[in-house]
## 1
Amino acid sequence: MSTAHVLLGLLAAGPRHGYDLKRAHDERLPKAKPLAFGQVYATLGRLERDGFVAEAGQDREGGPDRTSYTLTDEGRRHLDAWLAAVEPPAPYVTSELFSRVVVALLAADAERARDYLVAQRAAHMSRMRELTTAKSAPGASVGDVVAADYAIGHLEADLRWLQTTLSRVAEMQKEVTM
């Protein structure tokens, strides 16, 4: 995730200070890792340095001064270019799950590899049930539903792959022991 681009997108709605940006990020991307305040302010500093945001003023709401930032015209062009760029599919398989399955096939016998795949499949199914319940819960926001749908789609793909790999364990075990 590009924190800078997310902050630019949040500023597209109007000026905000760091606290508001962090809160908006955590609300609008509900299943993403929450931002740390230091990360927000460091990113705003870089965006200001690069001319993508500018200070819009300061206010004090019962606490320290808060500097608001606004998106500049250059920042809007930068955001628009990022939004127009297609995200290329990952060129390499870089998943902890993939690595564990391959190592299980290499380092364990066929039965232990099958046991691992079955246990992993059960964990994925459990997580899918949690996400399905969460997205249909009363009060679930559109962001919650979209995030759950995204995660469920990835879990479904992993489950298909786990099932295919499970059916190939014996064949792969022969290859490893040759």
Note: Residues 110-135 form the longest helix (26 residues).
## 2
Amino acid sequence: MAGSLKDQLLKAGIASRKQAKEAELDKRRKRKKGQHGPAREDLDRASAIEAARREKLEKDRELNERRRREQAERALRAEIRQLAEQHAVPLPRDPELRYNFVWKNKVHSLWIDPSLRSQLAAGTLAVVAIDPAFALVPAAIAERIRERDPAAVVQKPDEPPANAPAEDDPYADFPIPDDLHW
């Protein structure tokens, strides 16, 4: 048996010429749709791939930016820690006074001697927060640390004391004695 399937079906009488022509026409239509269909699908697929690529690039850029900010913050913290550790004034071995200060709405204290207390009162020393601890540093170093991170300096030398009398205070002429130790 030679010939195409169509010829064989026509000879056997299973299909008519009209059915054969309709089958060819359907076959051509499907082929034409197949040519245009995948091209549209390819365009849709390509645009979806491009959108996914752009989204991934944006996400990567945001991630890199966040990593860069975190790295810069860690470097800043390390620089502040190094400045404070290099220039820290050593605390006395036998302190006499407890120096209280407020940091992040909590009262903290350092044990110091009278000479350190007078330097703190004069503003030549400042208290600086280094991670979980505190250090006394000269005012110039505290200013350099404040430039890098204002929150790291606990006590600013140029800050007026919290208990300074107001300008219109009627009791300004009657200072509170400072010789009371609790």
Note: Residues 94 and 155 are 23 Å apart (CA to CA).
## 3
Amino acid sequence: MSNVRTPDPYPGWLSPEDLHEARQRLPMVYVEALPVRVDTLGYVTEIGLLLTASDEGEMVRTFVSGRVLYRESIRAALLRHLEKDLGPFALPQIPPSPVPFTVAEYFPSPSPSPYTDDRQHAVALAYVVPVTGECTPRQDALQLSWLTPDECLSDGVQAEFVGGRGNLVRQALAHVGWGR
């Protein structure tokens, strides 16, 4: 969420001014998804990370993320953002029961939460979503990299995440039993 923006295909739902005003008064609800490749037993073999430039021109790693629209189901929001960020042929496998592996609270200022977003207070439902198709990164991403779990946990890659997202990757891997 912090400084990593994707062009909104539904820009009319709130004007930029109304969105700014809402962000000053209300927590925003987001979905975040770590796209993964799995082997025949269902073990995670790779994680898809987007590489993009922050507003400050720094190269940062991120993953699928976006707001839940008014009257939109969590399942529909996940599918919409996965298709928007990974392309129409990613073939995400939305879980039958969309229960997040964690709920991340982002704050614009220091808080007990490890997650920050300088724009707003946001609540993000975080998921691990297998994808089986061809993925092409979103318009504002420079590339989509498929990294092994060990590579994602390396100090170098962890340092490239913003807003505490490296913590989410560690939590996601623990959730799927990595390090067994």
Note: Helices lie at 16-25, 74-86, 149-153, 155-158, 165-175.
